[in-house]
Amino acid sequence: MSRPSFGLPQLVLALLLGALPAAGRAAELATWTVAPAPAAALSRHDGTVEAVRQTVVSAQVAGAVVALPVKAGDRVRAGQLLARLDARAAEQQAGAAAAQVDAARAAQQAATLEVRRQRQLFASHFISQAALDQAEAQYQAATAQASAQLGAAQAARTESGYYAVKAPYDGVVSEVSVMPGDMAMPGRPLLTLFDPAALRVAVAVPESAAPGLRAAQAAAASVELGGQRLAAPRWEVLPAADPLTHTVTVRITLPAGAVAAPGGFARAWLPTSGLAGASDNRSRILIPSQALVQRAELKGVYVVGADGRALLRQVRVGPSTGGQTEILAGLALGERIALDPQAAARRP
C-alpha cells in the first residue's frame, strides 16, 4: 500500500492538525518491546545492615570526662581527639617519674667517675681487689637503677596519654554514651564509631539451608536498599549456627558507595538451592541500559504509544549487568520503549 503524498500546504495543515500517520512519526525511532526475562531462582529474606568495622570506644583508665569535642553524626579522622579525661594526677606522676630519672642518672654519673678512679688506684696497687669489686658493684647498681627509673617514667608518660581518647580509624560517630562531667571507667563505653566505607547485610536463614547455600555461593545475590536493588559483589555463609534459633547467618557485602546506616533494614535475595521459604518467582523485566534517562533524581524511559508518541515515564530500577538493567516497577509486558532517549525527547 503506497503512502499518500502531500503538497506543501497540505503538509503544513497535516502537521498542525496531527494528521500525519502514526507510523510516519515513529518510523525512524528504534524501539524495544518489553518481554519477560528468565526468572532467577531467588528467595527473599529480611536482614539488617551492619558495618564491617564498628567499634565501641572506651577508656583504658578512670577519670572524669572534661572535654567531648564530637557528637553523633560527626565524621572523624584516624587519630582525632574524641574525648579527654582529667589527667592532672597522671601528669603529676609523670613529672615525678621524670625527676626520679634525673636523680638516677646523676647517681649513675657519680658511680661512673668513682669506678674509674678505683680502677686507676687498683692499677697502681693502692687499693685491694675487694675495694675495686665494691666500686664495680655500686656502678652496676646505679646503672640498673637509672634504667628502671627510665622505664617507670616512660610507663607513666604512656599512661598519661590514655586520658586523651582518639579515633582508631576514619569513621562516623553513631552514638555518644557520656556527657562532660561523667566518670569514665575502663570498659565503660564512651561512644560508638563505624566505618561507612565498608557495609554489609546480615540475614538469618534456616540451618538446613546452609549446605545448599555454600554450594551455591558462586551464584549472584542482590540486596534491596532504599528502594534500589543492588547487585552484591560477594556473600558468605558463616560456619556456626545459632543454638537457640537454629539459623545460620549469611553476610552479604554491599557495593561501594551504598548509602546506609548500621541497624537499618534491608531485603536480600539469595539462591533458593536448598533454601526453604517463599521464592521470588515473578517475571523479571530487563531492558537495555541505553534506554534509561535520568532527570535529577528521576529515572525513566520513553514509552512509545500506539499513536507513535513517546512519553517519559518514571521507573524503579534494579541492578545492571551485561548492558541490561532490571526494571522493578513502572513497565508492563508488551509495551514499547525508545532505545534512544534523546531522539525520543526531540519528537513531537
From TrEMBL:
Domain of life: Bacteria
Signal peptide extent: 1-26
Keywords: Signal
InterPro entries per the UniProt record, alphabetical: Beta-barrel_RND_2 (IPR058792), BSH_CzcB-like (IPR058647), RND_pump_MFP (IPR006143)
Coiled coil: none
One Pfam family of this chain: Beta-barrel_RND_2
Domain CzcB-like barrel-sandwich hybrid: 54-184
Domain CusB-like beta-barrel: 201-256
Presence of keyword Secreted: no
PANTHER family reported for this sequence: HLYD FAMILY SECRETION PROTEIN, MULTIDRUG RESISTANCE PROTEIN MDTA
Protein family: Belongs to the membrane fusion protein (MFP) (TC 8.A.1) family.
Protein name (Swiss-Prot/TrEMBL): Efflux RND transporter periplasmic adaptor subunit
UniProt source species: Pelomonas caseinilytica
